[in-house]
Amino acid sequence: MTGIAIGADGWLRYIVETTENTSPVTGSIIPVAIVSESLKYNRAKTPSNSINSHGQVETLIRGTSSSNGASVHELRYGEFDAFLESVFRKAWDTNVLIPGKVDKSFTFERGFPTMTTAAYERFTGVKADGFNLSVPSDTRKVDLTFNWFGYQEITPVPTTDWDAANVGVTLGANPAAAKAPMYLSCASLKQDTVAIATVTGFSLDVSKGLNPIDVVDCDAPAAIVSGSLFNVTGSMDLVFTNMDTHNDYLQDTEFALEFTLTDGTSTYLFEMDTVEFSDSANPTTGPNQITRNHSFIAKYNAAATATLTLTRAA
After folding, report:
1. For the chain, what percentages of helix, strand and coil (3-state, to nearest 5) are there?
2. How many domains does the chain divide into?
3. Dihedral sign from CA coordinates of 208, 20, 119, 211
4. Does residue 15 form part of some domain?
5. Which residues are 11's β-sheet partners?
6. What is the spatial distance between Cα 136 and Cα 268, in angstroms, rounded to a whole number?
7. Which residue among 40, 160, 226, 241 sits deepest, i.e. has the most Cβ atoms within 10 Å of its Cβ?
8. In whole angstroms, what is the distance from residue 46 CA to residue 24 CA?
């Protein structure tokens, strides 16, 4: 059977919006590599409670609708720099990124051009709420998940891709097309500049709590805004060799935490200058090695003017 949509034949592209929730008709639309993605439009509908002669639901009431979802990637240098700007609400400044207060939004296009009738979905006003970065214990490869909120999906469903539909839009190249996936650089995870040994797992979560402001007079939200402060948390698993980090947890010790991701050439350096452990546990799960599990929270550092500083180097 032909014409069935399959993931391997599909793609995800984005174009940066100049005006939030307005798809540009000029510029470059960029393909992005994905492991998976789940962008969707949530069209709110509520059954009417009106009682009638037949005692059954007769109509549906439309509510404010919006888009959300996640996209999962293998981290490659340069591919997600625009997405990171959306998370941090600030542009890169001399290859350094810290939190700011300027929103960045995108129009996303999902395409399945090999179907019998080609299908495309477009989501407008999409912003990155945050990301999860993890290095599983069985691999050094970095998994990166972005969480998204958007205004709406274009209807009716388009039958032509965006660059073909707009003469001012060109199809750009993926900036990381020739790049290898990144990994945690050996001995780069450091507490107060000292390498932390025997790390078996690590993750970092960044979130600013995006949420749509629903209104009574329109299908789309009035705005999508941050509903919380810029939060940076994470976890690390360490083979249990001493009580040093547990003592830091018990005594509310502040410390600096940093790590470097690399593909062998290019790097991202993540720096958190003021961090505390928020949990510490070393359960015995069997006869194998004991692993201490730590959670941590980063705080604003006045000298760095940031909770988290990200520095890139090609």
Report:
1. 5, 45, 45
2. 1
3. positive
4. yes
5. 111
6. 18
7. 226
8. 33
If phi over 0 gives left and psi between -120 and 50 gives alpha, with beta otherwise, what is residue 25? alpha
Closest by alpha carbon to 68, among 156, 147, 7? 147
Which residue has better confidence, 248 or 3?
A: 248
Peptide bond just before 287 cis, omega within 30 deg: no
**105: which residues sit within 8 A by CB, 6+ positions away?**
16, 17, 20, 21, 86, 125, 126, 127, 150
Residue 25 resides in a domain: yes
Give residue 2's pLDDT: 61
Question: DSSP strand E in 93-167: where?
Answer: 96-97, 106-112, 119-135, 143-150, 152-153
Residue 30 lies in a domain: yes
List residues bridging with 63 in a β-sheet. none
Q: How is residue 179 annotated by DSSP?
A: P
CA 294, CA 276: separation in Å to the nearest integer? 10
What are the structure tokens assigned to 74, written together? 């293998």
Cα–Cα distances (Å) from 201 to 60, 179, 184, 189, 196, in that order, read: 48, 24, 10, 11, 12
Q: What's the average model confidence in pLDDT over 13-36? A: 96
Residue with tokens 């959306």: 86
The pTM score is 0.92
Instruction: Identify the three-state secondary structure at position 9.
Output: helix
CA 25 from centroid of its chain's CA atoms: 26
Residue 1 reports pLDDT greater than 50: no
Size (the chain), residues: 314
The burial class, CB within 10 Å (0-12 / 13-18 / 19+), for 70 is: middle
Phi, psi of 92, rounded to the nearest 5 degrees: -60, 135
How many Å apart are CA 248 and CA 254, to the nearest integer? 8
- With respect to residue 50, please indicate whether it lies within any of the assigned structural domains: no
Q: Which two tokens stand for residue 21?
A: 């929730």
> Residue 286 is encoded by which pair of tokens?
């069997």
